[in-house]
Amino acid sequence: MRRRTAPVLQLVVLLLLCCLAHLTTPQETTNLYAECKGIAGDWIPECWSATYAQISFGGDRTLYFTPYLSRRWGNALSPYWQARALALIAGQGFDAYEGFVGGWMQHLPKKLPPTTCPELGRFKEACDQCDSDSWLYAHRCHGAWQQIRPTIINDTHAAVQAWLQASKQQQQQQPSFSPGDVVIQSRCSEDTLLSHPEFGPVGFSFYNGIDAAATKAIYIVAQPGKQLPACAAIRAAKVKHLEARYPNASVQVVGGKLEEDFLRLLFAPVLFKDAQSSFGLWAALANKGQVFSVPMLPLYTNVTTPDLGGGWHWVAAPVLYPSVAEAAGIAKNDSEAPVAVPQQCCGLAVAAGSDCKGEARHFDDINLPTPAPAAILVPRYAQGSRGQSSNQAYTL
Protein backbone atom coordinates (compact mmCIF):
# COMPACT_ATOMS: atom_id res chain seq x y z
CA MET A 1 0.00 0.00 0.00
CA ARG A 2 2.89 2.36 0.84
CA ARG A 3 4.46 1.84 -2.57
CA ARG A 4 1.19 2.72 -4.30
CA THR A 5 0.63 5.83 -2.15
CA ALA A 6 4.04 7.41 -2.77
CA PRO A 7 3.55 8.19 -6.48
CA VAL A 8 0.16 9.74 -5.71
CA LEU A 9 1.64 12.01 -3.04
CA GLN A 10 4.44 13.01 -5.35
CA LEU A 11 1.89 13.95 -8.03
CA VAL A 12 -0.10 16.07 -5.58
CA VAL A 13 3.03 17.90 -4.42
CA LEU A 14 4.07 18.52 -8.02
CA LEU A 15 0.67 20.02 -8.85
CA LEU A 16 0.83 22.30 -5.80
CA LEU A 17 4.29 23.49 -6.80
CA CYS A 18 3.09 24.23 -10.32
CA CYS A 19 0.15 26.26 -9.02
CA LEU A 20 2.42 28.18 -6.64
CA ALA A 21 4.82 28.96 -9.45
CA HIS A 22 1.95 30.20 -11.61
CA LEU A 23 0.74 32.55 -8.86
CA THR A 24 4.15 34.00 -8.05
CA THR A 25 5.46 34.38 -11.59
CA PRO A 26 4.47 37.67 -13.35
CA GLN A 27 1.97 36.88 -16.08
CA GLU A 28 1.95 38.50 -19.46
CA THR A 29 -1.06 40.86 -19.81
CA THR A 30 -3.22 40.30 -22.87
CA ASN A 31 -3.53 43.42 -25.01
CA LEU A 32 -7.18 43.52 -26.05
CA TYR A 33 -6.59 46.53 -28.30
CA ALA A 34 -3.32 45.61 -29.98
CA GLU A 35 -4.57 46.94 -33.33
CA CYS A 36 -5.86 50.21 -31.85
CA LYS A 37 -3.35 53.04 -31.54
CA GLY A 38 -3.44 55.07 -28.36
CA ILE A 39 -5.72 52.68 -26.45
CA ALA A 40 -4.40 50.95 -23.33
CA GLY A 41 -4.46 47.19 -23.66
CA ASP A 42 -6.51 46.74 -20.50
CA TRP A 43 -8.96 49.64 -21.05
CA ILE A 44 -12.50 48.96 -19.86
CA PRO A 45 -15.19 51.51 -20.81
CA GLU A 46 -16.98 53.24 -17.98
CA CYS A 47 -20.44 54.74 -18.42
CA TRP A 48 -22.12 54.57 -15.04
CA SER A 49 -25.57 55.72 -16.12
CA ALA A 50 -25.77 52.96 -18.72
CA THR A 51 -26.35 50.40 -15.97
CA TYR A 52 -29.92 51.67 -15.69
CA ALA A 53 -30.54 50.22 -19.14
CA GLN A 54 -28.93 46.92 -18.10
CA ILE A 55 -25.73 47.62 -20.01
CA SER A 56 -22.39 46.55 -18.56
CA PHE A 57 -18.83 46.18 -19.83
CA GLY A 58 -16.75 43.09 -19.21
CA GLY A 59 -12.99 42.86 -19.07
CA ASP A 60 -13.06 40.78 -22.24
CA ARG A 61 -13.83 43.69 -24.62
CA THR A 62 -17.54 42.89 -24.66
CA LEU A 63 -20.63 44.94 -23.90
CA TYR A 64 -23.25 42.83 -22.14
CA PHE A 65 -26.88 43.81 -22.57
CA THR A 66 -30.05 42.39 -21.04
CA PRO A 67 -32.96 43.01 -23.46
CA TYR A 68 -36.09 44.72 -22.21
CA LEU A 69 -38.92 42.42 -23.24
CA SER A 70 -42.11 44.32 -23.94
CA ARG A 71 -44.93 44.57 -26.47
CA ARG A 72 -44.20 48.29 -26.45
CA TRP A 73 -41.73 47.87 -29.23
CA GLY A 74 -40.44 51.42 -29.15
CA ASN A 75 -39.41 51.14 -25.51
CA ALA A 76 -37.90 47.70 -26.12
CA LEU A 77 -35.84 48.83 -29.11
CA SER A 78 -34.54 52.05 -27.55
CA PRO A 79 -32.06 50.45 -25.11
CA TYR A 80 -31.17 47.75 -27.66
CA TRP A 81 -30.04 50.19 -30.34
CA GLN A 82 -28.36 52.39 -27.75
CA ALA A 83 -26.40 49.36 -26.53
CA ARG A 84 -25.50 48.32 -30.08
CA ALA A 85 -24.31 51.83 -30.87
CA LEU A 86 -22.34 52.14 -27.66
CA ALA A 87 -20.59 48.84 -28.37
CA LEU A 88 -19.53 50.02 -31.83
CA ILE A 89 -18.32 53.41 -30.60
CA ALA A 90 -16.42 51.85 -27.68
CA GLY A 91 -14.84 49.19 -29.89
CA GLN A 92 -16.54 46.37 -28.00
CA GLY A 93 -18.19 43.13 -28.93
CA PHE A 94 -21.90 42.72 -28.18
CA ASP A 95 -23.68 40.06 -26.16
CA ALA A 96 -27.45 40.22 -25.64
CA TYR A 97 -27.69 36.74 -24.08
CA GLU A 98 -30.74 35.05 -25.63
CA GLY A 99 -31.99 38.25 -27.29
CA PHE A 100 -35.65 39.04 -27.86
CA VAL A 101 -38.35 36.41 -27.79
CA GLY A 102 -40.70 35.96 -30.75
CA GLY A 103 -41.60 38.17 -33.69
CA TRP A 104 -39.14 39.82 -36.05
CA MET A 105 -37.01 41.16 -33.18
CA GLN A 106 -35.86 37.64 -32.28
CA HIS A 107 -33.81 37.78 -35.51
CA LEU A 108 -31.85 40.90 -34.48
CA PRO A 109 -28.16 40.15 -33.78
CA LYS A 110 -27.54 38.72 -30.32
CA LYS A 111 -23.78 38.23 -30.31
CA LEU A 112 -21.20 40.16 -32.31
CA PRO A 113 -17.40 40.35 -32.08
CA PRO A 114 -15.61 43.70 -31.83
CA THR A 115 -15.05 45.18 -35.27
CA THR A 116 -14.01 48.75 -34.50
CA CYS A 117 -11.47 50.60 -32.38
CA PRO A 118 -12.70 52.76 -29.49
CA GLU A 119 -13.52 56.37 -30.34
CA LEU A 120 -13.04 57.93 -26.92
CA GLY A 121 -14.47 61.34 -27.79
CA ARG A 122 -17.68 59.99 -29.29
CA PHE A 123 -18.00 57.49 -26.45
CA LYS A 124 -17.74 60.21 -23.82
CA GLU A 125 -20.24 62.39 -25.69
CA ALA A 126 -22.77 59.57 -25.86
CA CYS A 127 -22.41 58.82 -22.15
CA ASP A 128 -22.60 62.45 -21.07
CA GLN A 129 -25.67 63.23 -23.18
CA CYS A 130 -27.83 60.49 -21.66
CA ASP A 131 -28.49 60.81 -17.94
CA SER A 132 -29.59 57.90 -15.78
CA ASP A 133 -33.28 58.49 -16.46
CA SER A 134 -32.87 58.56 -20.24
CA TRP A 135 -31.04 55.33 -20.97
CA LEU A 136 -34.12 53.15 -20.79
CA TYR A 137 -35.72 55.59 -23.23
CA ALA A 138 -32.67 56.44 -25.29
CA HIS A 139 -34.81 57.97 -28.05
CA ARG A 140 -35.10 61.03 -25.79
CA CYS A 141 -31.46 62.03 -25.80
CA HIS A 142 -28.59 62.76 -28.15
CA GLY A 143 -27.06 59.37 -27.56
CA ALA A 144 -25.05 56.82 -29.45
CA TRP A 145 -27.96 55.52 -31.55
CA GLN A 146 -27.95 58.61 -33.75
CA GLN A 147 -24.52 57.64 -35.04
CA ILE A 148 -25.39 54.20 -36.44
CA ARG A 149 -28.39 54.64 -38.74
CA PRO A 150 -26.88 52.47 -41.55
CA THR A 151 -26.54 49.63 -39.03
CA ILE A 152 -30.15 50.11 -37.90
CA ILE A 153 -31.32 49.98 -41.53
CA ASN A 154 -29.33 46.88 -42.45
CA ASP A 155 -30.04 44.84 -39.33
CA THR A 156 -33.73 45.73 -39.12
CA HIS A 157 -34.39 44.76 -42.73
CA ALA A 158 -32.38 41.55 -42.37
CA ALA A 159 -34.34 40.61 -39.24
CA VAL A 160 -37.70 41.45 -40.82
CA GLN A 161 -36.91 39.46 -43.96
CA ALA A 162 -35.83 36.46 -41.88
CA TRP A 163 -39.08 36.71 -39.92
CA LEU A 164 -41.21 37.06 -43.05
CA GLN A 165 -39.51 34.02 -44.57
CA ALA A 166 -40.21 32.00 -41.42
CA SER A 167 -43.77 33.36 -41.21
CA LYS A 168 -44.91 32.38 -44.69
CA GLN A 169 -47.15 29.69 -43.24
CA GLN A 170 -48.85 32.39 -41.17
CA GLN A 171 -49.46 34.45 -44.32
CA GLN A 172 -47.53 37.45 -42.98
CA GLN A 173 -46.50 39.52 -46.00
CA GLN A 174 -44.57 42.65 -46.76
CA PRO A 175 -46.95 45.53 -47.56
CA SER A 176 -47.18 46.59 -51.19
CA PHE A 177 -46.73 50.25 -52.14
CA SER A 178 -46.37 52.21 -55.35
CA PRO A 179 -43.59 54.80 -55.72
CA GLY A 180 -44.70 58.06 -54.18
CA ASP A 181 -47.24 56.51 -51.79
CA VAL A 182 -47.38 58.29 -48.44
CA VAL A 183 -47.79 56.72 -45.01
CA ILE A 184 -48.74 58.94 -42.06
CA GLN A 185 -48.38 57.69 -38.50
CA SER A 186 -51.20 59.03 -36.32
CA ARG A 187 -50.70 58.23 -32.62
CA CYS A 188 -53.66 59.44 -30.60
CA SER A 189 -55.15 57.73 -27.56
CA GLU A 190 -56.15 58.21 -23.93
CA ASP A 191 -52.56 57.87 -22.71
CA THR A 192 -51.08 60.31 -25.24
CA LEU A 193 -53.51 63.11 -26.10
CA LEU A 194 -52.66 66.01 -23.78
CA SER A 195 -51.43 63.39 -21.31
CA HIS A 196 -47.91 62.41 -22.33
CA PRO A 197 -45.29 65.20 -22.49
CA GLU A 198 -43.75 63.73 -25.65
CA PHE A 199 -46.94 63.31 -27.67
CA GLY A 200 -49.33 65.67 -29.36
CA PRO A 201 -51.23 66.13 -32.63
CA VAL A 202 -49.03 67.65 -35.33
CA GLY A 203 -50.23 70.70 -37.26
CA PHE A 204 -51.50 69.91 -40.72
CA SER A 205 -48.83 72.13 -42.26
CA PHE A 206 -46.55 69.18 -41.51
CA TYR A 207 -47.97 67.48 -44.62
CA ASN A 208 -47.30 70.35 -47.01
CA GLY A 209 -44.22 68.48 -48.19
CA ILE A 210 -46.30 65.80 -49.90
CA ASP A 211 -45.63 65.81 -53.64
CA ALA A 212 -49.10 66.23 -55.19
CA ALA A 213 -47.91 65.11 -58.62
CA ALA A 214 -46.26 61.90 -57.43
CA THR A 215 -48.72 60.85 -54.73
CA LYS A 216 -51.62 58.61 -55.67
CA ALA A 217 -52.35 57.11 -52.25
CA ILE A 218 -52.09 58.39 -48.66
CA TYR A 219 -52.40 55.89 -45.81
CA ILE A 220 -53.05 57.11 -42.26
CA VAL A 221 -51.87 54.45 -39.81
CA ALA A 222 -54.02 54.75 -36.70
CA GLN A 223 -55.06 52.50 -33.87
CA PRO A 224 -58.16 50.47 -34.73
CA GLY A 225 -61.24 50.27 -32.57
CA LYS A 226 -63.05 52.84 -30.47
CA GLN A 227 -61.31 56.20 -30.25
CA LEU A 228 -61.50 59.15 -27.94
CA PRO A 229 -63.95 61.71 -29.36
CA ALA A 230 -61.08 64.17 -29.70
CA CYS A 231 -58.90 61.63 -31.53
CA ALA A 232 -61.73 60.68 -33.85
CA ALA A 233 -62.41 64.35 -34.65
CA ILE A 234 -58.74 65.07 -35.32
CA ARG A 235 -58.51 62.04 -37.60
CA ALA A 236 -61.63 63.04 -39.52
CA ALA A 237 -60.34 66.60 -39.91
CA LYS A 238 -57.01 65.27 -41.13
CA VAL A 239 -58.69 63.11 -43.77
CA LYS A 240 -60.78 66.04 -45.03
CA HIS A 241 -57.74 68.31 -45.13
CA LEU A 242 -55.67 65.81 -47.13
CA GLU A 243 -58.52 65.08 -49.52
CA ALA A 244 -58.98 68.79 -50.16
CA ARG A 245 -55.28 69.51 -50.60
CA TYR A 246 -54.49 66.40 -52.66
CA PRO A 247 -57.67 65.65 -54.66
CA ASN A 248 -55.87 63.23 -57.00
CA ALA A 249 -54.79 60.95 -54.16
CA SER A 250 -56.92 58.41 -52.33
CA VAL A 251 -56.83 58.88 -48.55
CA GLN A 252 -57.36 55.79 -46.41
CA VAL A 253 -57.25 55.13 -42.67
CA VAL A 254 -55.53 51.81 -42.00
CA GLY A 255 -54.39 50.10 -38.84
CA GLY A 256 -54.28 46.62 -37.50
CA LYS A 257 -51.87 44.34 -35.72
CA LEU A 258 -48.68 45.72 -34.28
CA GLU A 259 -46.61 43.83 -36.83
CA GLU A 260 -48.64 45.13 -39.76
CA ASP A 261 -48.38 48.75 -38.68
CA PHE A 262 -44.62 48.50 -38.10
CA LEU A 263 -44.14 47.06 -41.59
CA ARG A 264 -46.21 49.86 -43.10
CA LEU A 265 -43.95 52.45 -41.50
CA LEU A 266 -40.81 50.51 -42.37
CA PHE A 267 -41.52 50.02 -46.08
CA ALA A 268 -43.34 53.30 -46.82
CA PRO A 269 -41.86 55.14 -49.83
CA VAL A 270 -42.65 58.40 -48.02
CA LEU A 271 -43.19 58.40 -44.26
CA PHE A 272 -44.45 61.12 -41.92
CA LYS A 273 -43.55 60.08 -38.37
CA ASP A 274 -45.81 61.26 -35.55
CA ALA A 275 -44.36 63.55 -32.85
CA GLN A 276 -41.97 61.73 -30.47
CA SER A 277 -43.30 58.19 -30.89
CA SER A 278 -40.47 55.72 -30.25
CA PHE A 279 -42.40 53.03 -32.14
CA GLY A 280 -42.41 55.33 -35.14
CA LEU A 281 -38.81 56.41 -34.60
CA TRP A 282 -37.22 52.98 -34.93
CA ALA A 283 -39.32 52.13 -37.97
CA ALA A 284 -38.46 55.50 -39.49
CA LEU A 285 -34.73 55.15 -38.81
CA ALA A 286 -34.79 51.81 -40.64
CA ASN A 287 -36.90 53.19 -43.50
CA LYS A 288 -35.01 53.39 -46.82
CA GLY A 289 -37.32 55.99 -48.38
CA GLN A 290 -38.02 59.62 -47.52
CA VAL A 291 -38.81 60.34 -43.87
CA PHE A 292 -40.32 63.52 -42.43
CA SER A 293 -40.27 64.25 -38.71
CA VAL A 294 -40.78 67.14 -36.31
CA PRO A 295 -37.66 68.02 -34.27
CA MET A 296 -36.77 66.18 -31.09
CA LEU A 297 -37.83 67.81 -27.85
CA PRO A 298 -35.31 70.19 -26.25
CA LEU A 299 -36.36 68.84 -22.85
CA TYR A 300 -33.95 65.92 -23.25
CA THR A 301 -31.33 67.03 -25.76
CA ASN A 302 -29.50 70.12 -26.96
CA VAL A 303 -29.48 68.74 -30.50
CA THR A 304 -33.08 68.60 -31.73
CA THR A 305 -32.31 68.07 -35.43
CA PRO A 306 -29.29 65.73 -35.61
CA ASP A 307 -27.88 64.68 -38.96
CA LEU A 308 -29.46 61.28 -39.64
CA GLY A 309 -28.27 60.97 -43.20
CA GLY A 310 -29.91 61.12 -46.58
CA GLY A 311 -33.65 60.85 -46.85
CA TRP A 312 -34.36 62.24 -43.36
CA HIS A 313 -36.10 65.62 -43.28
CA TRP A 314 -36.75 67.69 -40.16
CA VAL A 315 -39.89 69.82 -40.43
CA ALA A 316 -40.54 72.69 -38.03
CA ALA A 317 -44.27 71.99 -37.80
CA PRO A 318 -46.19 72.93 -34.65
CA VAL A 319 -47.22 70.21 -32.20
CA LEU A 320 -49.94 70.44 -29.55
CA TYR A 321 -47.88 69.07 -26.68
CA PRO A 322 -49.54 69.13 -23.23
CA SER A 323 -47.42 72.13 -22.24
CA VAL A 324 -48.69 74.06 -25.27
CA ALA A 325 -52.29 73.10 -24.53
CA GLU A 326 -51.93 74.10 -20.88
CA ALA A 327 -50.60 77.51 -21.85
CA ALA A 328 -53.58 77.94 -24.18
CA GLY A 329 -56.09 76.73 -21.60
CA ILE A 330 -57.09 73.69 -23.67
CA ALA A 331 -58.17 70.40 -22.10
CA LYS A 332 -59.46 67.26 -23.77
CA ASN A 333 -62.43 66.66 -21.46
CA ASP A 334 -63.79 70.15 -20.94
CA SER A 335 -66.64 69.78 -23.41
CA GLU A 336 -67.95 67.69 -26.27
CA ALA A 337 -65.67 69.55 -28.63
CA PRO A 338 -62.61 67.59 -29.80
CA VAL A 339 -60.45 69.91 -27.76
CA ALA A 340 -62.29 72.39 -25.55
CA VAL A 341 -62.09 76.01 -26.57
CA PRO A 342 -61.97 78.60 -23.80
CA GLN A 343 -64.22 81.63 -23.97
CA GLN A 344 -61.24 83.90 -24.52
CA CYS A 345 -60.53 82.01 -27.73
CA CYS A 346 -59.07 84.86 -29.76
CA GLY A 347 -55.32 84.62 -29.71
CA LEU A 348 -55.43 81.32 -27.85
CA ALA A 349 -57.59 78.76 -29.60
CA VAL A 350 -60.25 78.86 -32.28
CA ALA A 351 -62.72 76.12 -33.17
CA ALA A 352 -63.86 75.89 -36.75
CA GLY A 353 -67.13 77.73 -37.15
CA SER A 354 -66.82 79.80 -33.99
CA ASP A 355 -66.59 83.57 -34.10
CA CYS A 356 -64.10 85.74 -32.30
CA LYS A 357 -65.48 89.23 -32.57
CA GLY A 358 -63.00 91.93 -33.41
CA GLU A 359 -60.23 89.46 -34.27
CA ALA A 360 -59.25 87.99 -37.61
CA ARG A 361 -58.50 84.29 -37.97
CA HIS A 362 -55.48 83.12 -39.93
CA PHE A 363 -55.32 79.91 -41.93
CA ASP A 364 -51.91 80.33 -43.50
CA ASP A 365 -50.74 76.94 -42.30
CA ILE A 366 -53.30 75.03 -44.32
CA ASN A 367 -53.69 77.37 -47.29
CA LEU A 368 -57.44 76.82 -47.44
CA PRO A 369 -60.27 79.37 -47.45
CA THR A 370 -62.24 79.93 -44.28
CA PRO A 371 -63.95 78.30 -42.63
CA ALA A 372 -61.23 75.67 -42.37
CA PRO A 373 -62.26 72.01 -42.39
CA ALA A 374 -60.28 71.46 -39.22
CA ALA A 375 -61.75 70.88 -35.80
CA ILE A 376 -59.25 72.86 -33.79
CA LEU A 377 -56.85 75.74 -34.22
CA VAL A 378 -54.16 76.81 -31.77
CA PRO A 379 -51.53 79.55 -31.97
CA ARG A 380 -47.97 79.27 -33.15
CA TYR A 381 -46.94 82.26 -31.04
CA ALA A 382 -44.86 83.46 -33.98
CA GLN A 383 -43.34 86.93 -33.85
CA GLY A 384 -45.15 89.52 -35.96
CA SER A 385 -43.42 91.85 -38.36
CA ARG A 386 -43.31 94.61 -35.72
CA GLY A 387 -41.83 92.37 -33.06
CA GLN A 388 -45.19 91.68 -31.41
CA SER A 389 -46.61 88.24 -30.85
CA SER A 390 -48.97 87.37 -33.68
CA ASN A 391 -51.97 85.10 -33.31
CA GLN A 392 -51.41 82.98 -36.38
CA ALA A 393 -53.10 79.65 -36.04
CA TYR A 394 -52.42 76.14 -37.23
CA THR A 395 -54.73 73.23 -37.64
CA LEU A 396 -54.43 69.85 -36.07
Counting DSSP H or I runs of 4 or more residues, the number of helices is 8
Give the helix level as a range of percent: 25-40%
What oligomerization state is this entry in? single chain
Between the first and last Cα atoms, what is the distance in angstroms?
96 Å
Shape, per Cα inertia axes: globular
How many strand segments? Answer: 13
The radius of gyration computed from the alpha-carbon positions, rounded to a whole number of angstroms, is 28 Å
The overall pLDDT average reads: 76
**Structural class computed from helices and strand pairing:** alpha/beta
Main sheet, how many strands, which sense, barrel?
6 strands, parallel
Low-confidence stretches: 334-396
Task: Itemize the secondary structure elements and their pairings.
Layout: H1 2-24, E1 55-57, E2 62-65, H2 73-89, E3 93-95, E4 111-112, H3 120-129, H4 149-166, E5 182-186, E6 217-222, H5 229-245, E7 250-254, H6 258-267, E8 270-272, H7 278-286, E9 290-293, E10 312-314, H8 322-328, E11 350-351, E12 376-379, E13 393-395
3D structure, described in words:
The protein is 28% helix and 12% strand. It has 396 residues and is of the alpha/beta class. The strands form three sheets. Strands 7-6-5-8-9-10 form a six-stranded parallel sheet, with helices on both faces. A four-stranded mixed sheet has the order 1-2-3-4, covered by helices on one side. The longest helix has 23 residues, at 2-24. It is globular, with a radius of gyration of 28 Å. Residues 1-26 form the signal peptide. Keywords: Signal. This is Exostosin GT47 domain-containing protein.
